[in-house]
Amino acid sequence: MYRGIGACDGIVIAKAFVLKKEDAVFAARSVLSAEEEVKRYNNAVKKFVEDTTVLAAQVEKNAGVEQASIIEAHAIMANDPDVKDSVLAEIKDNMATAEAAVVNAFTSVIAMFSAMPDEYMRERAHDLADIKARILEILTGKKRHSIEDISQECIIIARDMTPSETGRINKTVIKGVITEIGGITGHMAIMAKAMELPTVLGMEGMLKNVQTGDTIALDGSTGEVIINPTEADLARYKNLASEYDIYKKELEVYKNRQSITLDGVHVEIAANIGGTEDLEAVIKNNADGIGLFRTEFLFMGRDSLPNEDTQFEVYKKVTEAMGDKPVIIRTLDIGGDKDVPYLDMKKEENPFLGYRAIRLCLGNKEMFSIQLRALLRASRYGNIKIMLPMISTVTELRQAKAIIFELKTELEKEGKPFNKDIQIGIMIETPASCLIADILAKEADFFSIGTNDLTQYTMAVDRGNEKVQYLYSTYEPAVMRSIYNVIKSAKKAGIMVGMCGESAGDVNMIPFLLACGLDEFSMSAQSILRAKKEICNLSKQELEKQIDVILNMSSREDIYNYCNRQR
Fold it and tell me: Strand ranges (DSSP E) for 311-436?
């Protein structure tokens, strides 16, 4: 038995398909004309962009708009001026063939990004390697492998899986994935989770121990993998698979049930989305609303800012689809791990601590105002609430509210209707906002706790850095106490408090959050029914007795184990 990182739940027993990846081979030849090689390269990039557009549409259909944006970004990266200039210099200055120029230029850029301390930049190296391989395939006319050609049910075993490879997966054939490298914050894990594809990552040395045709038993929740399981192993896994299927069927009962505890406390279970394509899953699982609409994906994968009408139509569509249910729309949260090339943002030493989110928006009032006008106009069609990201000071909140007030006045003069009582809330995701939560609660209409960034900033840890991954846990006492204090401040001020970070869907964390008084839990659509089931079988009154016990624990291990035992 082997154990890796469980990235997506599910029990699978199937034959292994070892995905062998070899570098593109091309014959050495003389360059007859630099002009001709430049033309070949430019044509290859053009074809790459066309193929990427098709692939992104496929990914959007299978996994959602947020995952499609990962693929769309490859088209932008392939046309990055620095990368293209490097390739063209290889051709013109060194008289290299287009293939050799791509290899030399991309290898150099990939090495540069791989050596960077920031995890996001290292992730870009992985993307660039994917782009390099695909452009070489176009130039040589030789594919290294084709996921689409797999016709029998299997579990893919690979060194790694690129975003473009993951996007081509046909779930009717490919039942699971195991990779030697990768972590839960990588693009592969994000896409696999959205596709509900049982996945185990970080299985170093797996390729040495498995061959195509071997039987594999995979548990995507625990990260357990067995090669050529015994009859006893197979019986155990078949039993686990049956239990998992029964569990999934049991969840269906909760589609039409409200989230009410055993002692009659009602909470909202909402969904996080990245675009209109995610609505189907939200409606299918009967979410109580949208707790987080990440609008940055409207701005990514394009070459200019979306105008007011473009944004308005998207916000309107989402709002109308949800009827009278609340739709919390977060204003642009760009920077840190999200880059928009056409904004020409300067590279920063510490992008997560830099010019991002509300800081960027307040510094670019015209861009911010376009989005806010679109949101206000769309508010007449449903229950839109505006949420401001990464608020650290009362001044930032007041400045944003002042801009919104100005825009309301403008729209009134223009005779354009909007909800005059639209709520303005904030994301709590910095230690600063936690410390002044009582002050912010007097001026915000609601809070939403973003545990992903809150954990990162509270623990001063790069959540993508494997060497300090041990510090990245919401169960750390400092983070748990921060969450408790924020909820307490919101309750005292009489405003709604929700959570839209990953922890909102963590069944071990839900009892603590419920006991503290969290009003709204917002998560991926796939987690909604599981969370509903958990809440409907809990008593808030009984759980409240555990708060002091948890808050006085000294380590995350103690807190996690205690929460796990109480379920």
Answer: 326-330, 383-388, 423-428
CB neighbour list of residue 365: distance below 8 Å, 6 or more residues apart: 403
CA separation (Å) from 514 to 189, 316, 418? 28, 32, 34
For 36-93, the DSSP string reads: HHHHHHHHHHHHHHHHHHHHHHHHHHHH-HHHHHHHHHHHHHHT-HHHHHHHHHHHHH
pLDDT at 117: 55
Active site residue 145: no
Annotated catalytic residue, options 8, 74, 126, 187: 187
81-94 vs 98-114: helix crossing angle, rounded to 10: 130
CA atoms within 13 A on the CB side of 551: 14
Alpha carbon 164 to chain centroid distance? Answer: 16
Alpha carbon distance 111, 124 (integer Å): 11
- In the block, tokens 């009134």 appear at 412
pLDDT tens column, 204-216: 999 999 999 999 9
Between CA 48 and CA 53 the distance in angstroms is 9
CA 254 to chain centre: 25
Give the pLDDT confidence of 27-58 residue by residue, as tens digits: 666 777 889 999 999 999 999 999 998 888 88
Helices (H) and strands (E) counted in the chain, each on its own, are: 24, 16
Closest CA to 309 of 359, 248, 378, 246: 378
pLDDT at 218: 95
More confident residue, 146 or 138: 138
106 within 8 A of 136, measured Cβ to Cβ: no
pLDDT tens for residues 470-499?
Answer: 888 999 999 999 999 999 999 999 999 999
CA distance 187 to 182: 9
Q: CA–CA separation, 515 vs 479, rounded Å?
A: 16
Tell which wins on pLDDT, 30 or 291: 291
Q: Decide: residue 491, CB within 10 A, 0-12 exposed, 13-18 middle, 19+ buried.
A: middle
Question: Which residue out of 154, 434, 500, 563 is catalytically annotated?
Answer: 500
Is 187 assigned a catalytic role? Answer: yes
